[in-house]
Structure formats: C-alpha cells, structure tokens
Amino acid sequence: MAETYTVLARRYRSQTFDELVGQEAVSQTLKNAIKMGRVAHAFMFTGTRGVGKTSAARILAKALNCPNVKDGNPCGSCETCKAIARGEDMDVIEIDGASNNSVDQVRELRQSAGIRPARSAYKIYIIDEVHMLSGGAFNALLKTLEEPPSHVKFIFATTEVHKVPATIISRCQRFDFKNIPTQQIAEHLRAICKDEGVEAEEDAIFRIARLGNGSMRDALSILDRVLSMGEKKITDKVIEELLGKPPTASIAELVSAMAEGDAAAAIIKADKLLKDGMGVEQVLGELIEFFRGLMLVATCGEKTDLLDVPGEARGAFTALSGKYDPPTLVHLITLCELSLRSLKSSTMHRPLFDALIVRLALAEQFSSIRQLMAGGDGSSSNSPGAGQKKK
Ligand SMILES: [Zn+2]
User: Fold this and answer.
1) Which of 122, 255, 261, 362 shows its CA 20 to 30 Å from the CA of 183?
2) H helices within the chain, ranges in order?
3) CB-based burial of residue 193 (10 Å sphere; 0-12 exposed, 13-18 middle, 19+ buried)?
4) Is the CB of residue 289 less than 8 Å from the CB of residue 305?
C-alpha cells in the first residue's frame, strides 16, 4: 500500500471520454466535436455534485491540446496530457469560482487570456462553480465571451445553472450531466474492488452504489471509508457497522408484518430498528424507498431497471408486491411523507412514529373508517387513495 492514501475518486478519475461513467451522450457529442474539429469556444457543464463535470472538463482540455488524439480521446501519455491530469499544465488554468469571484480577478483573467498559450494550441480556462461569480465578475466575463481570442476556450461547471445569467449561458454550448444510474455506479465500484484486490458481496456493492444517490464521488467516498476499515471482504454487515443502516431485510420484515395487518408485530419490529440505532426519520425514509420498490414491481413488473436492487434481493419485493395494489402503495408513500413533514415541526416524535406504524399496518380498517365518515357504506371502493390490500 502507498504511504499516503490517495482517495479513490482521484486515483480512479476518468482519463478519457470512453471512461467517463454514466455520461455517454455528453462523451459522444464531445468526441465528435473533437474529431470534426468543430469545437465551441465556451462550454457550460451542469449537473449535481460528483457526476463527472470536472473530470469531463479535464478530458476535454486534454483532447483540445493533446497532439496524439485518437478517435476524439486524448492519448493520456504525452507531456500535455500528464500535466493536465496533475492539474499543473501552464495552458490549462483551473479556477474555483467560489473563491475567485471578484471583478478584479476576472479582469486579471481577461488580461492573461490575451496572451498566447505557452506550448499548446489553446489556452483553456476551467471555472468550477461558476455560479458563485459576482454580478460584476459576470459582466467582465461576458466581454471576453463576446469577443474571445481564437486561442482561448472556456469550460464552466456548475451545480446551480439557474444562478448563471442567461447572457452567459447563451454564449456557451451547454451539456447537462445526468445523475449516474445505480447499476453503473455499482459496476464501477466492482471494478475498483477487483483492482484493489478486495472481495465484495454483490448486495454490499449495491448498497454503497445506492447510497451514492447518483453521485460517483459520494459512492467512492463511502467505499473509501469501507476500505479504511481494513476488512478482507466487504459485506452488508461491514457496511452496517460503518453506517448503521439496516439491510433491506429488516425493513422487509417490518413491511411484511404491515401487509399481514399485524399492528403488534409491526410496532415491535419498528421498535427494534430504533433500538438498533436508526433514527425515526431514517426508518421513514427507508419505508418510503421500500414502498416505492413495491410500487415499481407492482406497476412495471419485477424485472424493471428502475428498481435499484440486485437480483437476489428482488425476492423480498416480488413476494410482498403481490399483497398490495399500486393505489394503496401510493397512499402508503403519501402517509410516510406527511409524517416526515409533521415530524419536523413536532417534538412528539415517538408517538407520531408509532401512530404511523399502526396506521400503515391497519390501512385497510382506516380506509373503511374514512369511507364511513365520508358517508359511504364501506362497500364501494371508488376512492383511489383508500388503502386496500389484495385478498
Ligand atoms: Zn496526449
């Protein structure tokens, strides 16, 4: 092992467009532009954190200045490519918009942009978090964007494109980076574990990928933490020790009790989750995720790609989805969501939580009470929100 630990996100940063995970459309368009030599002079990369914007900006910078471009991808081994990868190339200037956001700093940038590149074809400015620039700084930048020297390229990246003035955006070629699908994050994590010589259970990999929530960087930093525990094999249990989140299995048991209408068992299982260290809000969040899974299986079939769980864990969803129909699941999700919101403004967390658990378990009875209160006779079921279990 290396003496100083470099985080995975840096060690495994994508070096070519082909390696960029989950952004195929962006990669393809940029590669084509490079191949045809038709490259805009300013780019706007938007998307949430950790989806590959900065990596893509560096790859594009390399592809623009690398003398050995192949099929639109930079070679990765020439001096220019290496220097850009290290963030030390003299013609590629990386600026953090959050800390260099004043008018003076942009004026400096404009002056330096007027000077020709030192050794490469282009002088490239990568401005990260560009939405943080001040109003005056944007105005100064706009002047350069209106009449850019032919040797200058701008690559802007932002998580909050709505804060960037339309006058700036309209002068850029815009690329919207998508959240990375869990499947693709999992695939990447699997490859990294293999590379690192660590064995990993499929369920555990998926759990980390899911926790990344569409962000490769977040998933990798969780994997960093898991690896730092020094276990030979990454299992669900190892992750549970680290993150204190229960495996889908215990939520499945809770929902199973609810599906049986067994309020007592549901309360006991929910209580166990809290005793094991989960917060009330966390349990509700997991329940929402679980009901969503059931709803996806109930509406789209058990093979749906929308469900972010590996093959083996789908059993629980398939078994339970037969107990509910989609309108009921929508209703249950709504109930959880409403409780999450009222919890925020209440100090009575536990009573509210217990009441919700009972309500979810007795959804059927509650719906007939509601129908009675509404003056119905309880036999008609034209209320779409009514909780009804399939018999
Ligand atoms: Zn190169």
Assistant:
1) 255
2) 8-11, 24-36, 53-65, 79-86, 103-114, 135-146, 166-169, 182-196, 202-211, 216-228, 236-243, 248-259, 263-275, 280-300, 314-321, 326-344, 349-361, 363-373
3) buried
4) no
Q: How far is the CA of 151 from the centre of ligand 1 (A)?
A: 18
What is the architecture of the domain spanning 8-176? 3-Layer(aba) Sandwich (3.40)
Distance CA(203)–CA(186), nearest Å, equals 10
Q: In which residue ranges of the chain is CATH 1.20.272.10 found?
A: 248-373
Residues 6+ apart with CB under 8 A from 342: 352
Supply φ then ψ for residue 143, to 5 degrees: -60, -40
Q: Which residues surround ligand 1, an ion (CB under 5 A)?
A: 66, 74-75, 78, 81
Whether CATH 1.10.8.60 fits 182-243? yes
Compute, in angstroms, the gap from residue 63 CA to the centroid of ligand 1. Answer: 7
- Which tokens in the block code for residue 226? 């898991």
CATH of range 248-373; options 3.10.450.50, 3.40.1360.10, 3.40.50.410, 1.20.272.10 = 1.20.272.10
Length of the chain counted residue by residue: 391
Given phi > 0 = left and psi -120 to 50 = alpha, else beta, which region is 201? beta
- Report whether 31 contacts 69 (CB < 8 A): no
| The pLDDT of residue 379 | 44
DSSP tag of 177: P
pLDDT (tens place) for every residue of the chain, 391 residues total: 445 788 999 899 999 999 999 999 999 999 999 999 999 999 999 999 999 999 999 999 999 999 999 999 999 999 999 999 998 999 999 999 988 888 888 888 888 898 999 999 999 999 999 999 999 999 989 989 998 899 999 999 999 999 999 999 999 999 999 999 989 999 999 999 999 999 999 888 988 998 888 999 999 999 999 998 888 899 988 887 887 655 577 888 999 999 999 999 999 999 998 887 788 888 998 899 899 999 998 898 888 878 777 666 677 788 888 888 888 899 999 999 999 999 888 888 899 999 999 999 998 776 655 565 665 444 444 444 444 455 4
List, by residue range, all CATH 3.40.50.300 domains of the chain: 8-176
79 CA distance to ligand 1 centroid (A)? 7
Model's pTM, two decimal places? 0.73
